[in-house]
Amino acid sequence: MTEQIARNEKQLGAILRRARRQADLTQGALGSRIHLRQATVSRLEAGEPAVQLSTLMAALSALDLELVVRPRSKSSATEIADLF
Amino acid sequence: MTEQIARNEKQLGAILRRARRQADLTQGALGSRIHLRQATVSRLEAGEPAVQLSTLMAALSALDLELVVRPRSKSSATEIADLF
DNA sequence: TGGCAATATACGTGATCGCGTATAAGCATG
DNA sequence: CATGCTTATACGCGATCACGTATATTGCCA
User: Fold this and answer.
1) pTM for this structure?
2) Contacts for B39-47 with beta carbons within 8 Å, 24 or more apart?
3) What domains, with CATH codes, occur in chain A?
Protein backbone atom coordinates (compact mmCIF):
# COMPACT_ATOMS: atom_id res chain seq x y z
CA MET A 1 0.00 0.00 0.00
CA THR A 2 3.03 2.21 0.24
CA GLU A 3 2.10 4.13 -2.87
CA GLN A 4 -0.76 6.57 -2.84
CA ILE A 5 -2.24 8.61 -5.59
CA ALA A 6 -3.32 12.22 -5.20
CA ARG A 7 -5.20 14.11 -7.85
CA ASN A 8 -6.32 16.98 -5.70
CA GLU A 9 -5.39 18.78 -2.54
CA LYS A 10 -7.78 16.86 -0.37
CA GLN A 11 -6.39 13.50 -1.34
CA LEU A 12 -2.92 14.82 -0.77
CA GLY A 13 -3.86 16.08 2.66
CA ALA A 14 -5.38 12.76 3.58
CA ILE A 15 -2.25 10.93 2.50
CA LEU A 16 -0.11 13.22 4.59
CA ARG A 17 -2.31 12.75 7.59
CA ARG A 18 -2.08 8.98 7.32
CA ALA A 19 1.67 9.15 6.92
CA ARG A 20 2.09 11.42 9.89
CA ARG A 21 0.02 9.18 12.10
CA GLN A 22 1.89 6.17 10.92
CA ALA A 23 5.07 7.94 11.93
CA ASP A 24 3.43 8.49 15.30
CA LEU A 25 3.77 12.23 15.21
CA THR A 26 1.36 14.92 16.25
CA GLN A 27 0.78 17.91 14.02
CA GLY A 28 2.72 19.95 16.52
CA ALA A 29 5.66 17.57 16.51
CA LEU A 30 5.79 17.45 12.75
CA GLY A 31 5.45 21.21 12.58
CA SER A 32 8.33 21.85 14.89
CA ARG A 33 10.58 19.63 12.81
CA ILE A 34 9.98 21.76 9.77
CA HIS A 35 9.46 25.13 11.40
CA LEU A 36 5.78 25.32 10.65
CA ARG A 37 3.02 25.88 13.15
CA GLN A 38 0.62 23.19 14.17
CA ALA A 39 -2.12 25.30 12.61
CA THR A 40 -0.33 25.28 9.29
CA VAL A 41 0.02 21.52 9.31
CA SER A 42 -3.66 21.35 10.06
CA ARG A 43 -4.48 23.41 6.99
CA LEU A 44 -2.25 21.27 4.83
CA GLU A 45 -3.88 18.06 5.97
CA ALA A 46 -7.31 19.56 5.55
CA GLY A 47 -6.51 19.90 1.88
CA GLU A 48 -6.85 23.65 1.68
CA PRO A 49 -5.89 24.61 -1.86
CA ALA A 50 -3.98 27.73 -1.02
CA VAL A 51 -1.26 26.31 1.15
CA GLN A 52 2.14 26.82 -0.31
CA LEU A 53 4.25 24.32 -2.14
CA SER A 54 7.09 24.78 0.32
CA THR A 55 4.77 23.67 3.09
CA LEU A 56 3.99 20.49 1.26
CA MET A 57 7.58 19.71 0.36
CA ALA A 58 8.76 20.35 3.89
CA ALA A 59 6.18 17.98 5.28
CA LEU A 60 7.04 15.28 2.76
CA SER A 61 10.67 15.67 3.58
CA ALA A 62 10.11 15.40 7.31
CA LEU A 63 8.02 12.29 6.80
CA ASP A 64 10.66 10.83 4.54
CA LEU A 65 8.35 10.72 1.59
CA GLU A 66 8.89 11.67 -2.00
CA LEU A 67 6.70 12.79 -4.83
CA VAL A 68 6.39 10.99 -8.12
CA VAL A 69 4.80 12.60 -11.14
CA ARG A 70 3.46 10.28 -13.77
CA PRO A 71 0.78 10.05 -16.42
CA ARG A 72 -2.66 9.47 -15.02
CA SER A 73 -3.35 5.80 -14.80
CA LYS A 74 -6.98 4.97 -15.42
CA SER A 75 -8.55 8.39 -15.59
CA SER A 76 -11.50 7.70 -13.34
CA ALA A 77 -14.05 10.30 -14.27
CA THR A 78 -13.99 13.78 -12.72
CA GLU A 79 -11.29 15.48 -14.66
CA ILE A 80 -10.45 19.14 -14.64
CA ALA A 81 -14.11 19.86 -14.23
CA ASP A 82 -14.29 19.18 -10.53
CA LEU A 83 -11.70 21.79 -9.80
CA PHE A 84 -14.15 24.54 -10.57
CA MET B 1 11.12 7.46 -18.18
CA THR B 2 7.48 8.25 -17.53
CA GLU B 3 8.00 8.47 -13.79
CA GLN B 4 9.84 11.35 -12.27
CA ILE B 5 10.80 12.02 -8.69
CA ALA B 6 10.52 15.42 -7.04
CA ARG B 7 11.88 16.15 -3.62
CA ASN B 8 11.73 19.88 -3.83
CA GLU B 9 9.93 22.65 -5.65
CA LYS B 10 12.63 23.08 -8.25
CA GLN B 11 12.56 19.48 -9.32
CA LEU B 12 8.82 19.61 -9.47
CA GLY B 13 8.93 22.71 -11.60
CA ALA B 14 11.39 21.12 -13.97
CA ILE B 15 9.19 18.06 -14.34
CA LEU B 16 6.21 20.21 -15.13
CA ARG B 17 8.14 22.16 -17.70
CA ARG B 18 9.23 18.99 -19.44
CA ALA B 19 5.72 17.64 -19.41
CA ARG B 20 4.26 20.83 -20.78
CA ARG B 21 6.75 20.93 -23.62
CA GLN B 22 6.14 17.32 -24.39
CA ALA B 23 2.47 18.16 -24.64
CA ASP B 24 3.48 20.89 -27.02
CA LEU B 25 1.91 23.67 -25.04
CA THR B 26 3.14 27.14 -24.26
CA GLN B 27 2.85 28.51 -20.75
CA GLY B 28 0.10 30.72 -22.01
CA ALA B 29 -1.82 27.86 -23.55
CA LEU B 30 -1.54 25.77 -20.43
CA GLY B 31 -2.50 28.73 -18.31
CA SER B 32 -5.64 29.45 -20.21
CA ARG B 33 -6.77 25.86 -19.84
CA ILE B 34 -6.65 26.13 -16.10
CA HIS B 35 -7.48 29.78 -15.66
CA LEU B 36 -4.04 30.80 -14.56
CA ARG B 37 -1.91 33.48 -16.11
CA GLN B 38 1.18 32.73 -18.10
CA ALA B 39 3.15 34.51 -15.40
CA THR B 40 1.83 32.15 -12.78
CA VAL B 41 2.78 29.11 -14.80
CA SER B 42 6.19 30.63 -15.14
CA ARG B 43 6.57 30.92 -11.39
CA LEU B 44 5.44 27.37 -10.90
CA GLU B 45 7.94 25.99 -13.38
CA ALA B 46 10.67 28.13 -11.88
CA GLY B 47 10.18 26.21 -8.66
CA GLU B 48 9.22 29.15 -6.52
CA PRO B 49 8.36 27.74 -3.12
CA ALA B 50 5.39 29.95 -2.40
CA VAL B 51 3.12 29.05 -5.27
CA GLN B 52 -0.07 27.49 -4.10
CA LEU B 53 -1.01 23.87 -4.07
CA SER B 54 -4.06 24.54 -6.19
CA THR B 55 -1.80 25.93 -8.91
CA LEU B 56 0.21 22.74 -8.94
CA MET B 57 -2.79 20.44 -8.95
CA ALA B 58 -4.47 22.36 -11.72
CA ALA B 59 -1.37 22.14 -13.88
CA LEU B 60 -1.00 18.42 -13.25
CA SER B 61 -4.61 17.90 -14.11
CA ALA B 62 -4.37 19.82 -17.35
CA LEU B 63 -1.29 17.85 -18.32
CA ASP B 64 -3.06 14.63 -17.45
CA LEU B 65 -0.56 13.80 -14.76
CA GLU B 66 -1.04 12.49 -11.27
CA LEU B 67 0.92 12.64 -8.09
CA VAL B 68 2.15 9.63 -6.20
CA VAL B 69 3.38 9.84 -2.64
CA ARG B 70 5.68 7.10 -1.47
CA PRO B 71 8.53 6.47 0.92
CA ARG B 72 11.80 7.91 -0.26
CA SER B 73 13.65 5.39 -2.28
CA LYS B 74 17.37 5.61 -1.85
CA SER B 75 17.74 8.75 0.20
CA SER B 76 20.40 10.35 -1.93
CA ALA B 77 22.07 12.88 0.29
CA THR B 78 20.59 16.34 0.87
CA GLU B 79 17.85 15.69 3.35
CA ILE B 80 15.85 18.21 5.24
CA ALA B 81 18.99 20.24 5.59
CA ASP B 82 18.90 21.79 2.15
CA LEU B 83 15.52 23.27 2.81
CA PHE B 84 17.05 25.85 5.11
C1' DT C 1 -18.09 10.96 32.81
C1' DG C 2 -13.95 13.70 33.61
C1' DG C 3 -9.79 15.34 32.16
C1' DC C 4 -5.96 15.85 29.07
C1' DA C 5 -3.79 15.68 24.62
C1' DA C 6 -4.56 16.67 19.95
C1' DT C 7 -6.63 19.32 16.44
C1' DA C 8 -9.30 23.19 14.49
C1' DT C 9 -10.12 27.98 14.45
C1' DA C 10 -9.47 33.00 15.62
C1' DC C 11 -7.07 37.82 15.71
C1' DG C 12 -3.73 41.17 14.08
C1' DT C 13 0.54 41.62 11.24
C1' DG C 14 3.76 41.71 7.45
C1' DA C 15 4.71 39.21 3.31
C1' DT C 16 3.27 37.31 -0.90
C1' DC C 17 -0.13 35.23 -3.56
C1' DG C 18 -2.68 35.46 -8.37
C1' DC C 19 -5.02 38.95 -10.80
C1' DG C 20 -5.04 42.37 -15.06
C1' DT C 21 -2.07 44.66 -17.75
C1' DA C 22 2.22 45.64 -19.72
C1' DT C 23 6.84 45.22 -21.07
C1' DA C 24 11.58 43.31 -21.16
C1' DA C 25 14.48 39.61 -22.11
C1' DG C 26 15.40 35.07 -24.63
C1' DC C 27 15.01 32.24 -28.77
C1' DA C 28 14.39 30.61 -33.04
C1' DT C 29 13.61 30.58 -37.95
C1' DG C 30 13.54 33.00 -42.01
C1' DC D 1 20.26 40.38 -38.69
C1' DA D 2 15.33 41.03 -37.94
C1' DT D 3 10.96 39.54 -36.80
C1' DG D 4 7.83 37.10 -34.19
C1' DC D 5 6.81 33.85 -30.55
C1' DT D 6 7.74 32.54 -25.91
C1' DT D 7 9.05 33.33 -21.24
C1' DA D 8 10.42 36.38 -17.35
C1' DT D 9 9.50 40.33 -14.70
C1' DA D 10 7.06 44.67 -13.18
C1' DC D 11 3.10 47.69 -11.10
C1' DG D 12 -0.98 48.27 -8.14
C1' DC D 13 -4.76 45.60 -6.16
C1' DG D 14 -7.58 42.67 -3.15
C1' DA D 15 -7.17 38.24 -1.03
C1' DT D 16 -4.80 35.07 1.75
C1' DC D 17 -0.64 33.14 3.30
C1' DA D 18 2.23 31.72 7.72
C1' DC D 19 3.42 33.96 11.73
C1' DG D 20 2.77 34.41 17.19
C1' DT D 21 -0.46 33.75 20.40
C1' DA D 22 -4.60 32.11 22.14
C1' DT D 23 -8.74 29.53 22.50
C1' DA D 24 -12.56 26.43 21.05
C1' DT D 25 -13.46 21.83 19.72
C1' DT D 26 -12.68 17.09 19.40
C1' DG D 27 -11.24 12.51 20.68
C1' DC D 28 -9.64 9.20 23.74
C1' DC D 29 -9.01 6.52 27.77
C1' DA D 30 -8.82 6.07 32.69
Assistant:
1) 0.89
2) B44/B13, B44/B16, B45/B13, B45/B14, B45/B16, B45/B17, B45/B20, B46/B13, B47/B8, B47/B9, B47/B10, B47/B11, B47/B12, B47/B13, B47/B14
3) 9-82 (1.10.260.40)
